Amino acid sequence: MRYISTRGTAPTLDFAEVTLAGLASDGGLYVPEHWPQFSSAEIAAMRGLPYAELAARVMQPFVGESLTPDRLRELCEQAYGRFAHCAVTPLKQLDESQWLLELFHGPTLAFKDVALQLLGLLFEEFLARDESRLTIVGATSGDTGSAAIDAVAGRDNVEIFMLHPSGRVSDVQRRQMTTVLAPNVHNIAIDGSFDDAQAMVKRIFADAEVTGRHRIGAVNSINWARLMAQIVYYFAAALQLGAPDRKVAFSVPTGNFGDVFAGHVAARMGLPIERLVVATNVNDILHRALSEGDYSAGEVTPTAAPSMDIQVSSNFERLLFDVGGRDGMAMGEQMRGFEGSRAMLLTEAQRAGAGLFTSVRADADDMARAMRWACEEAGEVIDPHTAIGLHAARQQDLAPGVPVVTLATAHPAKFRDAVERATGMRPYLPTRVGDLFAREERLVELPGDYDAVKAHILEHAA
Ligand SMILES: Cc1ncc(COP(=O)(O)O)c(C=O)c1O
Ligand SMILES: N[C@@H](CCOP(=O)(O)O)C(=O)O
Q1: How far does the centroid of ligand 1 lie from the alpha carbon of residue 40, in Å?
Q2: Which atom of ligand 2 is nearest to the CA of 110?
Q3: Ligand 2 lining (C-beta closer than 6 Å)
Q4: Which NCBIfam families does the UniProt entry name for this protein (predicted)?
């Protein structure tokens, strides 16, 4: 499989190259040059496979010749062997039509582990081939940071600089990052929002002074391999609910549009998906874009679902490219316009092409009500992000017999105060992160200033 940039001018790459490259050199995002297809019979034959086996089966067409099928399966077994639930992403029924897909059984209690446990192994595998090193620069609104750090801490050929918005992640999220004291881990709290941090990361990729001295890599969902691993659980859930003979809808708490874009890819590959519900909090740029065609970024409002406090959703570019005719030159122009003005209108083709998606915006009351409903009606304590997804799922008017699966993206223990405020229940911290509050923290605080962040990275990168 070859990969092309959404902006049309970067070189095409194979899977190993795209995994190490992260962002394309023209500022675009890499996507496969075509979508692999599974027939109904091939999908039916995946029923009942263990998760690691299913993952290898779904991802093999994207990996192509970069890994043999046996090696890919071994890496999947290793990555998913670290999960606390043997189903890896178990599915739970809430009522006749509502289901929860629990994606938080990995080491850092959020869905990011599903992709990042594998990505850490892929980095090691591909870097070993030419004995090279990677300097990862990432941005996090809380969950990507800890999952990426867990995946690469202590590895010889990788170091990681992780930027988070100071004071805008939960205490558990921050400590999951800052208490990892391995010498290759550098936590930077910046004065600003996640959008500011993400913009700095993209600028680093385009900064010749940095890229001339270090090979820069990405752990955010701008890296194609992140999204690829997230496609698998759409297959896992739909197969359990009757695919390919039955359609399934998914409701996805959304920020950077990576998770729900993975659902779009699953549909492109032949999985019968009835609808993809994009659930946002009050940072609702995606809701406005999908319902009105208006993609214009306002200021980020801090909420009790901080990982979704995002106004510039990187992966939306992948969707617009894919549904708008795959014209890299036009996409590049559209995105440069957005980067200049922070506003753009979707084209008619892009709006029509996004017909599988619908969107719902949830405010603080909607979120709290969904948490209480899950607790009182289904006996489930859920986190604020999942609650936004569940609120949106319960608004859907679907044909009888079409189940709707909400992606449960984080463990409630990561957001104990918000969960307790809404439900009166204080979630326990699982033993695998149990002594978090007794550990020493290490981080630097920097102003929201690109030059300060760049200088810090250049000074501390090995
Ligand atoms: C718990 C949680 N839910 C939802 C999201 C949104 O996912 P995405 O950015 O892939 O849209 C995030 C952050 O990515 C998250 O950490
Ligand atoms: N919500 C994320 C923000 C970054 O998203 P990513 O999927 O692009 O890594 C977080 O919690 O860090």
Answers
A1: 30
A2: 11
A3: 140-145, 194, 220-221, 255-256, 258, 307, 314
A4: thrC (TIGR00260)
Please determine, for the modelled complex, whether the ipTM score is greater than 0.95: yes
State the distance from the centre of ligand 2 to the C-alpha of 256, rounded, in angstroms: 6
- Reading the chain (462 residues) residue by residue, the pLDDT tens digits are 999 999 999 999 999 999 999 999 999 999 999 999 999 999 999 999 999 999 999 999 999 999 999 999 999 999 999 999 999 999 999 999 999 999 999 999 999 999 999 999 999 999 999 989 999 999 999 999 999 999 999 998 999 999 999 999 999 999 999 999 999 999 999 999 999 999 999 999 999 999 999 999 999 999 999 999 999 999 999 999 999 999 999 999 999 999 999 999 999 999 999 999 999 999 999 999 999 999 999 899 999 999 999 999 999 999 999 999 999 999 999 999 999 999 999 999 999 999 999 999 999 999 999 999 999 999 999 999 999 999 999 999 999 999 999 999 999 999 999 999 999 999 998 988 878 999 999 999 999 999 999 999 999 998
Helix count and strand count (H, E) for the chain? 19, 15
Instruction: Identify the structural domains of the chain with CATH numbers, from first to last.
Output: 84-110+224-423 (3.40.50.1100)
Q: How far apart (Å, rounded) are the C-alpha atoms in residues 147 and 158?
A: 15
How many C-beta neighbours within 10 Å does residue 461 have? 16
Q: CB of 14 within 8 A of CB of 30? A: no
**Residues in contact with ligand 1 (CB, 6 Å cut-off):** 110, 142-143, 221, 253-259, 307-308, 385, 409-410
For ligand 1, the distance from its centroid to the CA atom of residue 95, given in whole angstroms, is 24
CA-nearest residue for atom 9, ligand 1, is 256
Helix/strand/coil (H/E/C) assignment for every residue in 392-445 = HHHCCCCCCCCCEEEEECECHHHHHHHHHHHHCCCCCCCHHHCCHHHCCCCCEE
Residue from 113, 141, 310 to probe ligand 2 pocket by mutation (most atoms less than 8 Å from CB): 141
Is 294:311 a contact under the CB 8 Å cutoff?
A: no
Report, as residue numbers or ranges, the catalytic residues: 112
Atom of ligand 1 nearest to the CA of 257: 11
Q: Is 268 helix (H, G, I), strand (E, B) or coil?
A: helix
